[in-house]
């Protein structure tokens, strides 16, 4: 059988891709969590169709060139275990597109999901009741720049600083800033956490730092090994960089400011190590106890 010649519709390639992915035992976690969603993303993005609308296209017949491209992508995904976002050079967070390649980890964060929800300016309980009043935002460990750009979209009056240690990641972030025409509002800084910022203070600090512990780093699936290890390595227990952020953040928070931080699975360690900090854990559809919020007042009360 040749996929390129024997398959003719989107439905054909969707079924074929799912079968291939299941047989290959692929790992997910770069924007999708199962074979069906991975196959749909690859097919729709490769065909320049809306990635959230599969049903209308299922019975569409494909050209010879389209069939050849899909067959190559499906084969490469199985053979090389390269994340789909790298194969296609593009991915999305809540419908917002970002360029993606091996200079930075594939854009993904539970914080992105939270920013699209009600916690920033929504009705009822809100971490930031008046998003329009936010004037300065900092995104630490920005990688591809995705969270900095999402923050600029959400907080329309804010200037956003984005910091990363990797010049390669910042080069990709610059491309994403340009893609979204945010050059006037998102400034990129190369350096180690707060080091390039002097004594500047922010209404909101966002960070999705490296937080994978040494044991988990050693056991990462092949897909994750295409990504820069610098973006994963959080030290022996995964929290080395988180500890540094907790130590330095109070000096960079403005009055009424707050910190939102993604940490993976280290909740019990943090709560035991910082018993006086009242971590507010923010759950999403796909996570529980992996993102916390602390206000500047929380830090002050814990001193």
UniProtKB/TrEMBL annotation:
- In its keyword annotation, does this UniProt entry include Lyase? no
Which residue numbers delimit the Methyltransferase small domain? 133-216
Specify the signal sequence span: none
Q: Name one GO molecular function term.
A: protein-glutamine N-methyltransferase activity
* Gene Ontology cellular-component annotations: cytosol; ribosome
Which PROSITE patterns does the protein's record reference?
A: N6_MTASE
Q: Which UniProt keywords apply?
A: Methyltransferase, Ribonucleoprotein, Ribosomal protein, S-adenosyl-L-methionine, Transferase
Q: Name one GO biological process term.
A: methylation
Q: Which InterPro entries match?
A: DNA_methylase_N6_adenine_CS (IPR002052), HemK-like (IPR004556), Ribosome_uL3_MTase (IPR017127), SAM-dependent_MTases_sf (IPR029063), Small_mtfrase_dom (IPR007848)
| Protein name per UniProt | 50S ribosomal protein L3 glutamine methyltransferase
Q: What is the organism field in this record?
A: Ancylobacter defluvii
In the UniProt record, the gene name given for this protein reads: prmB
């Amino acid at each position: 059988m040749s996929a390129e010649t024997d398959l003719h519709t989107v439905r054909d390639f969707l079924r074929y891709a799912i079968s291939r992915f299941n047989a290959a035992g692929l790992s997910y976690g770069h924007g999708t969590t199962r074979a069906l969603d991975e196959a749909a993303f690859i097919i729709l993005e490769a065909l320049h169709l809306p990635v959230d609308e599969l049903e209308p296209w299922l019975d569409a017949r494909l050209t010879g060139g389209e069939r050849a491209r899909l067959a190559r992508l499906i084969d490469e995904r199985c053979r090389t275990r390269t994340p789909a976002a790298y194969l296609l050079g593009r991915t999305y967070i809540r419908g917002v597109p970002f360029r993606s390649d091996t200079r930075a980890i594939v854009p993904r964060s539970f914080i992105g999901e939270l920013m699209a929800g009600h916690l920033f300016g929504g009705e009822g309980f809100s971490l930031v009741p008046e998003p329009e009043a936010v004037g300065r935002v900092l995104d630490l460990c920005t990688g591809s720049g995705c969270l900095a750009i999402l923050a600029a979209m959400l907080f329309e009056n804010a200037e956003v600083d984005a910091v990363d240690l990797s010049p390669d990641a910042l080069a990709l972030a610059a491309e994403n800033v340009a893609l979204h025409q945010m050059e006037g509002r998102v400034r990129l800084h190369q350096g180690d956490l707060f080091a390039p910022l002097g004594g500047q203070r922010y209404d909101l600090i966002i960070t999705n730092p490296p937080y994978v512990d040494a044991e988990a780093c050693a056991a990462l699936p092949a897909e994750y090994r295409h990504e820069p290890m610098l973006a994963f390595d959080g030290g022996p227990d995964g929290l080395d960089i988180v500890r540094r952020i907790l130590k330095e953040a109070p000096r960079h928070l403005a009055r009424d400011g707050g910190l939102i931080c993604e940490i993976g699975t280290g909740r019990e360690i943090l709560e035991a190590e910082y018993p006086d900090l009242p971590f507010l854990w923010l759950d999403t559809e796909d996570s529980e106890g992996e993102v916390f919020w602390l206000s500047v007042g929380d830090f002050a009360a814990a001193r």
